[in-house]
Amino acid sequence: MALSITKDSIDLGIVTRNVDKALAFYRDTLGLKPAGEMPMSGGGKMVRLACGTSVIKLVVNGRDPKATAPPGGIGGATGYRYWTISIDNIADAVKACDEAGYKVAVPITEIRPGIRIAMIEDPDGNWVELLQVEA
């Protein structure tokens, strides 16, 4: 059986220990737009942010998670290690992240002619790849 896809993008859930720090990164620094908030069972909450047609769901549980994902981005462990946002202002975005004190894990790098990436570490150690394709 194949999936019958009904949306042209995905929604991504990011579990965080501190939703305020996550919002400072994703909303205030990267500029993702608020798309709603809802309570979660056990006293937690979900804050949704729009990223194009995708939704980034920041989830904070009512109690701390039992484990923390291993640090180190792509080389740190298996599983979901980074996700990508396609943008047209990579230099400005990386500068804003750096000036706000976020770790630039991979500086702006041309990976193929006309394609540049950078990777930024969020407050929980997750990596976000910024990708710019020159027109």
Care to describe what's here?
By secondary structure, the chain is of the alpha/beta class. It has one domain: 2,3-Dihydroxybiphenyl 1,2-Dioxygenase, domain 1 (Roll). The protein has helices spanning 19-29, 90-99; strands at residues 11-15, 33-39, 45-51, 54-60, 82-86, 104-112, 115-121, 127-133. The longest helix has 11 residues, at 19-29. The N and C termini lie far apart (38 Å). The model has no long low-confidence stretch (mean pLDDT 95).
Helix/strand layout:
Blueprint lengths: L10 E5 L3 H11 L3 E7 L5 E7 L2 E7 L21 E5 L3 H10 L4 E9 L2 E7 L5 E7 L2
Parallel strand pairs: 1-4, 5-8
Antiparallel strand pairs: 2-3, 3-4, 6-7, 7-8
CATH superfamily: 2,3-Dihydroxybiphenyl 1,2-Dioxygenase, domain 1
Terminal residue distance: 38 Å
Number of helices: 2
The CATH topology assignment is 2,3-Dihydroxybiphenyl 1,2-Dioxygenase, domain 1
List the strand order in the largest sheet: 1-4-3-2
> Major beta sheet, specifics?
4 strands, mixed
Instruction: Find the structural class using helix and strand composition.
Output: alpha/beta
- Evaluate the radius of gyration: 16 Å
Outline type: globular
Strand segment tally = 8
Helix content: 10-25%
